[in-house]
Amino acid sequence: MIRKLLFVLLILAISTGIGRAQSFMKTSDLFQSPESNNGKGNLKIIQDPALDTLVSRYILGNKMLSEKYDYAGMDGFRIQIYSSSNRNAREESDKIIADFINKFPTINPPRKIFENPGYFKVRVGDFRSKTEATKLFLEISRAYPDAYIVPDFINFPEGN
Hints:
The chain has a domain at 74-155: Alpha-Beta Plaits (2-Layer Sandwich), CATH 3.30.70.1070. It has five helices and four strands, in the order αααβαββαβ. The chain has helices spanning 2-21, 27-30, 49-69, 89-103, 130-143, and strands at 73-84, 111-115, 119-127, 148-155. A four-stranded antiparallel sheet has the order 2-3-1-4, sandwiched between helices. A hairpin with a 3-residue loop joins strand 2 (111-115) and strand 3. The longest helix is centred in the middle third of the chain and has 21 residues, at 49-69.
């Protein structure tokens, strides 16, 4: 009986040590100013420690996404104007990109995406919501009738 109790206490001690070894960021650390206070007051955040855990998980998840896609961004929508796995899909996608730039010079340059097993896709725009994408989609669908709105990982909007 005593052995079982000691074993349970040992496991609890080890699991507590492992839990504390993980990187942890407090919400108050996010709001620190690098400059001196100069009598402007202090910010004291009183909250449940579980919120700090959620903030840390969110930051870690975003860091992993930015490493996966090689750029910082967020979930959003794009308009896919081309998708094919033909032999000459690479050349066709380049022609579609050139044609799109000629027809819509004010829109950000399209992105060419390769996905296994041999699909080349061309997507345009960075939209935070489907409603934003719909405005441009109506215009683009006249020139590219097979276009449709797809969820994608987009760049952060500028100036917001």
